[in-house]
């Protein structure tokens, strides 16, 4: 870590977009959103672009110095072809959803009249849908996977970089039933 700090770039000022995709692209590339291909808006799943594939990402740099790299959670930086996916952008593994927002328990996306499942576990097989996670809260799944990655890094003594992007607080806004019950117990008159 000391070598990385000594030889790396230190940012003393940064301006971030107020939107999710551009901000995350900036964090991964170190470039302003308009230079990273993200503009000032989040992208739809269907658009034929994403985070600029010519820009080298932080996990790509970290892999060069021996880090294992993992992306967990929301990607939403381009899915129109495999060159935009996390495992093509420097990550060894990806566990999460490619789109901007999924149902917290069913892990599906509704587009007009269609629903489709969007939850992937690329630690097993590239582009493998993870249907076994249905019914489990995404925030819990992402937390647990990140803890498992960090435990494995400690055990193997291999440095690890984990990019964790929770889908909360994005729509659809919902809370786990046990959390709602605890709040209503303390504040029974809430609407």
UniProtKB/TrEMBL annotation:
It comes from Oikopleura dioica. Transmembrane segments: none annotated. The keyword Calcium applies. This is Sulfatase N-terminal domain-containing protein. Its cofactor is Ca(2+). GO terms for molecular function: metal ion binding; sulfuric ester hydrolase activity. It holds the Pfam family Sulfatase. Belongs to the sulfatase family. It comes from the Eukaryota. Residues 2-179 form the Sulfatase N-terminal domain. Keywords: Calcium, Glycoprotein, Hydrolase, Metal-binding. InterPro entries: Alkaline_phosphatase_core_sf (IPR017850), ARSB (IPR047115), Sulfatase_CS (IPR024607), Sulfatase_N (IPR000917). PROSITE patterns: SULFATASE_2.
């Amino acid at each position: 870590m000391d070598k990385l700090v000594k030889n790396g770039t230190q940012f003393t000022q940064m301006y971030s977009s107020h939107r999710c995709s551009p901000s995350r692209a900036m964090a991964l590339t170190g470039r302003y959103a308009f230079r990273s291909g993200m503009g000032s808006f989040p992208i739809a799943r269907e658009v034929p672009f994403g985070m600029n594939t010519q820009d080298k990402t932080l996990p790509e740099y970290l892999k060069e110095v021996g880090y294992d790299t993992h992306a967990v959670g929301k990607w939403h930086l381009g899915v129109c072809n495999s060159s935009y996916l996390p495992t093509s952008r420097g990550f060894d593994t990806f566990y999460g959803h490619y789109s901007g927002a999924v149902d917290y328990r069913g892990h599906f996306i509704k587009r007009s009249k269609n629903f489709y499942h969007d939850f992937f576990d690329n630690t097993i097989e590239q582009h493998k849908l993870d249907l076994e996670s249905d019914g489990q809260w995404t925030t819990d799944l992402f937390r647990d996977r990140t803890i498992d990655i960090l435990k494995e890094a400690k055990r193997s003594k291999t440095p690890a970089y984990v990019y964790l992007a929770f889908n909360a607080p994005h729509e659809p806004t919902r809370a786990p039933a046990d959390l709602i019950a605890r709040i209503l117990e303390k504040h029974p008159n809430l609407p």
